[in-house]
């Protein structure tokens, strides 16, 4: 085993043994060369501690725990600037006043042979940008729109963060229902929180804490506690339960049809509509997440001494109702990070619809398309040929350019757009977190150094993210391929392209 692999294994052990809260504080650092491994023993970069994620199409299940690492190069070890160093000005290498970006021709000489590899299929596009200056250093048909697969989630993320704000939270409420004879009616109202859970918190399995941690998803159990308490204070021990899932409109089934990688899209769902005990990866899903969530909530109320007189029924909550209880979601920033790290399709589709609501559009596929495009236009991003048929990238009719993807990443690092920073912090780390966990295992030079969003459908392979080069310069990149004859081979070639950015002495 090489020394790099030995240190990488040690770094992974340190990471896995660290408390979850400590791991959460480590996610904003990354470097080039051996620094990734050195930092792993102390304060290491990760892209998120979450346990959710879908899609077999990504060819790797989301990581339940993050890991970090680095790389080993022959020759001298360089001091690496933090990944976000360019946000405050030029990257410095400790031995000079500043560093220069790669030379475009040298970069082209290194990347073109790889991009011409037949494993990438018939359409290959690319864009590499120096983050500090915004200058595109390499481009190969960068304005040619192609199917992005899950890298379209970068666009969804940028739109949601810009339109809603990183601190925005979504409420799931219980309100008074329609007044009629018999027991009073209460209505469970879904607001579009895709991270709502009905499971006991791992941090508080006995539910002894009075309030949930602010960095934990909203809980139906907490909502049931508060609802039962309010009802008992009113002297009410028997109610009819209805549920309102009207916040989203239009077709609720994704065009790919029933699928274990995404639930029916609903503003009211618990645990992403999963029918098993998993919290990440493909899983059987309920056909009606809202009804299932309401049935679960009814059971939780019964456990707390409230009698439910009949099966929950769909209903529209009255206008201006009296609120009995509410729980608030994770902030949008956390949802974005989780979505990108694990390529979570359910979060992506919900964020697209929440963006639509935030911009005055209907919360449907069509409304989300308009909202995302309108918001990205306001951000000044290049939208040549862009089509956003969904928010997750499962739709093959989506189209974006490599230049759009790289520019989103550059904008996320801009000092005047701090609201977009979760796009960078949510990127999976090569060989260690999320959808890149099982990639770069045979590329020590890329492990821990490449942070990127993956995109994979049959015949479609994309990769877009950031690296720090050998001179300490932060680069944003996007590589896209269509009609690849073999998915794993195409992924390996894309990984080689990104790794080349970290090792190329192109200055």
Largest sheet: 6 strands, mixed
Helix/strand-derived category reads alpha/beta
Which percent bin holds the helix content?
Answer: 25-40%
Unreliable segments of 5+ consecutive residues = 1-8, 19-97, 208-212
Number of helices: 13
* Residues in β-strands, percent: 5-15%
User: What gap, in angstroms, lies between the N and C termini?
Assistant: 32 Å
Shape verdict: elongated
Q: Report the average pLDDT across residues.
A: 83
Gyration radius, rounded: 23 Å
Count of strand segments: 11
Along the chain, the helix and strand elements come as HHHHEEHEEHEHEEEHHHHHEEEH
Overview of the molecule:
The protein has 507 residues and is an alpha/beta fold. It contains 13 helices and eleven strands. The protein has helices at residues 3-17, 20-24, 35-40, 104-115, 153-164, 220-233, 289-303, 332-342, 345-358, 365-378, 402-412, 422-425, 487-503; strands at 123-130, 135-140, 171-176, 185-189, 238-244, 307-308, 313-314, 323-328, 451-457, 460-468, 474-482. Strands 3, 4, 5, 6, 7 and 8 form a six-stranded mixed beta sheet that branches. Strands 2-1-11-10-9 form a five-stranded antiparallel beta sheet, sandwiched between helices. Strand 9 and strand 10 (460-468) form a beta hairpin. Helix 5 (153-164) packs parallel to helix 9, helix 6 (220-233) packs across helix 7 (289-303) and helix 8 (332-342) packs antiparallel against helix 9. It is elongated and about 80 Å long. It starts with a helix and ends with a helix. The model is unreliable at 1-8, 19-97 and 208-212 (pLDDT under 50).
């Amino acid at each position: 085993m090489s020394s790099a692999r030995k240190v990488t294994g040690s770094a992974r052990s340190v990471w896995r043994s660290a408390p979850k809260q400590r791991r959460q504080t480590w996610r904003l650092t990354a470097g080039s060369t051996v620094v990734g491994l050195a930092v792993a023993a102390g304060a290491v970069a990760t892209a998120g501690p979450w346990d959710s994620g879908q899609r077999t199409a990504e060819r790797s299940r989301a990581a339940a725990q993050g890991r970090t690492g680095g790389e080993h190069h022959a020759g001298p070890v360089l001091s690496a600037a933090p990944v976000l160093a360019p946000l405050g000005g030029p990257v410095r290498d400790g031995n000079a006043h500043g560093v220069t970006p790669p030379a475009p021709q040298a970069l082209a000489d290194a990347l073109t042979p790889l991009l011409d590899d037949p494993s990438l299929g018939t359409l290959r596009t690319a864009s590499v940008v120096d983050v500090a200056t915004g200058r595109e250093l390499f481009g190969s048909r960068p304005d040619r729109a192609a199917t992005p697969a899950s890298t379209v989630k970068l666009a969804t993320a940028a739109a949601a963060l810009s339109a809603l704000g990183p601190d925005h939270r979504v409420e799931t409420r219980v309100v008074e229902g329609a007044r009629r004879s018999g027991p009073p009616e209460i209505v469970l109202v879904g607001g579009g929180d895709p991270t709502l859970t009905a499971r006991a918190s791992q941090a508080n399995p006995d539910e002894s804490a009075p309030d949930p941690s602010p960095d934990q998803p909203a809980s139906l159990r907490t909502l049931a506690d508060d609802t039962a308490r309010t009802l008992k204070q009113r002297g009410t021990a028997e109610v009819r339960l209805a549920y309102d899932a009207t916040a989203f409109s239009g077709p609720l089934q994704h065009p790919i049809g029933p699928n274990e990688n995404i639930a029916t899209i609903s503003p009211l769902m618990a645990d992403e509509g999963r029918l098993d005990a998993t919290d990440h990866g493909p899983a059987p899903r309920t056909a009606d997440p809202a009804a299932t969530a309401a049935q679960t909530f009814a059971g939780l109320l019964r456990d707390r001494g409230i009698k439910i007189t009949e099966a929950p029924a769909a209903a529209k909550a009255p206008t201006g109702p009296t609120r009995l209880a509410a729980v608030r979601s994770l902030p949008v920033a956390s949802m974005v990070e989780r979505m990108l790290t694990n390529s979570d399709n359910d979060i992506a589709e919900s964020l697209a619809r929440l963006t639509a609501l935030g911009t005055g559009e209907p919360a449907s596929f069509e409304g989300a398309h308009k909202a995302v495009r309108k918001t990205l236009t306001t951000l000044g991003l290049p939208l040549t040929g862009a089509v956003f048929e969904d928010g997750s990238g499962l739709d093959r009719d989506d189209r974006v350019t490599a230049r759009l993807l790289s520019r989103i990443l550059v904008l996320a690092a801009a000092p005047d757009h701090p609201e977009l920073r979760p796009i960078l912090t949510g990127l999976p780390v090569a060989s260690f977190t999320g959808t890149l966990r099982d990639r770069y295992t045979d590329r020590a030079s890329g492990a821990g150094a490449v942070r990127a969003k993956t995109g994979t459908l049959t015949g479609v392979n994309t990769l877009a993210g950031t690296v720090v080069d050998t001179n300490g310069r932060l680069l944003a990149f996007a590589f896209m391929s269509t009609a690849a004859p073999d998915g794993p081979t195409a992924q390996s070639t894309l990984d080689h392209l990104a790794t080349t950015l970290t090792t190329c002495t192109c200055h």
